[in-house]
Amino acid sequence: MQVYLLRHGHAVDNTSDDSSRQLSSTGAEDVASVARSFAETGQVIQCCFVSPILRAQQTAKIFLSIAAPDCEKENSELLLPDTSAHSVVRFLHT
Hints:
By secondary structure, the chain is mostly helical. Helix content is 41%, strand content 6%. It has three helices and two strands. It has helices at residues 25-41, 54-67, 85-92, and strands spanning 48-50, 73-75. Helix 1 packs parallel to helix 2 (54-67).
């Protein structure tokens, strides 16, 4: 199994609620660029787990639309910022 990690793109700073921060236009462009580069590798993504926070959702939507349009994304609370890495690794082993 190969695991790819993609951090969300740059987000705007003008909100008091961190989980509702949106991608900036630069962040969206950067994600699209990474997606195009990934698509050129020919790698196949079988599943995609995404944090429920807005900027992560937006990142996944852009990335998958370019690099893996047939891949469904699954929201996972395990990808919230306060989750331990151990919990994520344990989940991946199941």
